Amino acid sequence: MRELLIRKLTDIIREGLANNEKVTVEGLGTFSKKHIAAEEKSYPGGRVVLMPPKDVIEFKKVKE
Amino acid sequence: MTISTEQLLKLISGMTDQKPDIVLEEWETLVDSVRNLKPGESVEMSQLGTFKNVKGEIEFNPNAELADEINYEYSGQEPVVIEEGEEGSTVPIGVSVSGDDDEAATAKDDADDDDAFGVGFADDKANAEDSDDDFINPFVRKGSEPLFPDVDEVARKIKEDEDAEAAAKAENQDDIFGLDDENDTPSTLDKSFEEEKTESESISAADRDDEAITQPKNDYKKDDDDLTDSDSTNTEEKPLFESLESPEDEEKPAAMVIPPVKPDENVLKELKAEEEAAKAEAMARKIEKEQGKREKAKQVKKFNVWVAPTKTKSRANPQQLAKVGGLIFLSVLVVGGLIWYLLSMSGSGDRPVTTQQAVQPAVTEEQPIAEIPPAAEEEVVTEEVTPQDATEPVPADQTQEEPAAELIPEPQEIAPDPVPEPEPVLETTPEPEPESAPTPTPAPPVTEPATGEYGLEGEISIVSGRSYGIVVYSLSNQNRAQQEQATLRDLGYRTLIIPHEQDGQTFYRVLVGQLETPEAAVEAGQQLPEPYRNSFFVRRFFP
C-alpha cells in the first residue's frame, strides 16, 4: 500500500515538474524545478572548470 | 499545481482494494515520517528520493531516475576544463550532472581530451584518444621507409643524370654520326629507370646508393653485350660514377666496338657549313624578333593612352592569338615603314622632315603624341640627320623609328583593333597599377572563410583545430531538436545537432556557434539572448 502511494506521488510530481509547474502536496511541502546555470569553478592548483547547467528538484517543507 | 489529500486518495482508491480510511492512515504516517524528522535523520522513499533533516531544514534528494528525468535537457553533460592547473592540482570535481559517475570521472581527469568527436560514446572516446597515436601518414609505410624517396636524394640523382647527359652531349659533339648514342642513351635511361625501381623498393639508404650506382652499370654492361661479346670485360670492373665523371672512359667500349671511321673531310665541312648556316639563320631570326619587340615597346608607350584602358579587358583573350596578331601588326608596320622610307628617300627634300619626326619621338619616348616638335625645329634637325644617314650604319634603327612616327595619326583606328591590345600586358606594367588597385575589392570574399572559421553566426565550417559549441538544447525528440535548430539557424546562428546516448536513450544536443576555445565559447554564450544565456553549456564538437 505504502509503495503504491509513493509511486502515485512520484508520478504526480514528475508530471508537474516536467511541465515546469510547482507541485504542492498537502501536508508535505512543495516540489519545484530549479535551474542552475553553468558556472566556472576554480581550484587551488589554478585549474578552472566549467560546470554544466542543470535542472534540480527543490523541496520546501510545508509551514506548520 | 496543488494536490490535496482527497485528490490523492481519490486517485489511489481506484487502484487498490483497500478502504479509504486505511489509505488515509497510511498516507498520514508517510507524511509524518517526513515532517517529524529530527536533525541528521533521513527517510528514503524508493522511486521518489530521500528526505533528510539538515540543521532543522528538510532537504530532498531525488531518486537518480527522477533527477535525470527532470534534468533531461542537460543530461550527460560533463564539466569542461577551461584552464589547466599545475600538475597534481586535479581536485576531484565530484559533480555528476546526470548522475553518471563514470562520465564525471572521465571529465575530471581529461575533460579536454575525451569525446574527441563530440559524439559522446564511451567507445568513441577511447578511439579518439588512440587515434592520435595511430595516425597513419598516407605517404609513409608503417615501420619502414617513406613511400616516396627523399627529395634531396632524388635531386642528387637528377643532377647526376644531368651531368651524365651533359658529358655525353659534349662527347657527341665530335661524334657527328652518333655512333656512341647506343652507349650513352641506354645507360642514362636505364639508370633512371633502375633508380626508380630501386627507390620503390624499401631498401636502406646505403643499399640504395650502392644500387643506384651499380645497377645501371649492369644494364650498361648488358647493352654492351648486345653490341660486342668480346670487350665487355673492360667495362665490367668500372663503376658507373667513373664513366660519369670521365665520359672518355665510357666512350671507350663504343670506340672499340666500331672502329673509328674517319668521315670524309669534305662531308664534314659541308655538314659544318650547313650547321653554321642554320645557326646564323636562327640568330638572324632572333635578332629580328628582338628588334620587333623593341619596336612594339616603343609603339605601346606611344599609344598607351588608348591601350591602357583596354588592357584589363584583353586579359581574357588567349595570349597566343594576341602574339600572332602583334606579329602581323609589326610586320605590316615594318613593311609599310620601309616602303615609306624608300619613297621618302627617293622623293622631294620635304620628306626627310617627316623622317625626323620619327627620330624625335624616339628620343623622348614618353612624350605624348601632341608634343611632336614643330616643323621649324624639324628643319634644323633635318640638316643634322641627313649626314648621319650618309655616314652612320644605323639606317635599320631609323627605319624602325619611321613607322612609329608614320602611324601616329592612325592609333584611333588601331586602338579598337584587338591586335595591339595584348601587347601592353607585358610592356606597360606600370600602367595597370591604377586599374589593378580596385581589383583587391573583391578580395574580402576570399578572406571571409578564414575569418569566418569561428563565430556564433554563419555556417559550421571544417577547421583544423578544435571547435567548441554552446549547447542550448538537449532533447530526446529528434524532430524537436531539428525544429529548434531551424529556429536558431533562422536567427543567423551556426548550429549543429550532436546525438548523445545515455542509459540507452539518445539525446539530441543542439549546439550554437563554433568557437576556438572553451573560454571564447563561454563568452559567446553569455552574449546569447535570454532563453539561452541562462542555460547554455559548452561542448567540443570537432577534434
Write the layout of secondary structure elements.
The complex is a heterodimer of chains A (64) and B (543).
Chain A: H1 2-18, E1 23-25, E2 29-36, E3 39-42, E4 48-51, E5 54-61
Antiparallel strand pairs in A: 1-2, 2-5, 3-4
Chain B: E1 2-3, H1 5-13, H2 20-35, E2 42-45, E3 49-54, E4 57-62, H3 64-70, E5 80-83, H4 101-110, H5 122-133, H6 151-174, H7 181-200, H8 205-227, H9 232-236, H10 240-245, H11 247-257, H12 265-314, H13 319-346, H14 351-363, H15 375-391, H16 395-406, H17 411-414, H18 423-427, H19 432-436, H20 443-451, E6 467-475, H21 478-490, E7 495-502, E8 505-515, H22 518-526, H23 530-533, E9 537-542
Antiparallel strand pairs in B: 2-3, 3-4, 6-8, 6-9, 7-8
Q: Which runs of chain B of at least 5 residues are low in confidence (pLDDT < 50)? A: 88-151, 174-261, 300-316, 348-451
Largest sheet of chain A: 3 strands, antiparallel
Q: Please estimate the helix content of chain B.
A: 55-70%
Structural class of chain B: alpha+beta
Number of domains of chain B: 4
| Average pLDDT figure of chain B | 60
Secondary structure tally, helices of chain B: 23
Radius of gyration of chain A (CA) equals 17 Å
For the terminal residues of chain B, how far apart are their CA atoms? 46 Å
Q: Order the strands across the largest sheet of chain B as they lie in space.
A: 7-8-6-9
Tell me, what's the shape of chain A?
A: elongated
* Helix run count of chain A: 1
